[in-house]
Amino acid sequence: MALTQQPASSGSDGQRYATNDDRKRKRMESNRESARRSRMRKQQHLEELMSQMTQLQNQNVLWREKIDAVGRNYLTLDAENNVLRAQMAELTERLDSLNSLARFWADANGLAVDIPEIPDTLLEPWQLPCPIQPITASANMFQF
Question: InterPro entries, alphabetically (predicted)?
C-alpha cells in the first residue's frame, strides 16, 4: 500500500505544481498586459506633452512677434514725439522772438500792444491740474 500511496501523493504534488504553474502563467500574462497598458498610457501622455509643447512654442513665437511689433511701434512713436518736441521748442523760440519784436515795435511807436505770453501749461500739458477735455484714443490704437 505504501507504493500506491506514493504515486497518489506524487500525483497530487504534480497537480499542485500544475495549478501553481497555471497561476504563475496567468499572473505573468496579467502582468504583461498591465505593463503593456502602462506603456501605452505613458506613450499617450508623452504624445500629449509633445503636442502641448509644440502649441506653447507656437504661442511663444506669436507673443514674441507681438512684443516686437509693440516695441517697434513704441520706437516709432518715441521718435515722432521727439520730433514734435523739437518742433515745439523751435516754434516757441520763434514766437518769443516775434513777441519781442512786436514789443520793441510797439515801444518804438508808442503803441500799447497786449501780447499774451505762452502759458507754461500749454508748453507742458502733462502739468495741467486737470485736463479740460478727455483724451480719446482710436479703436485700433492698440491692435497688434
Answer: bZIP, bZIP_plant_GBF1, bZIP_sf
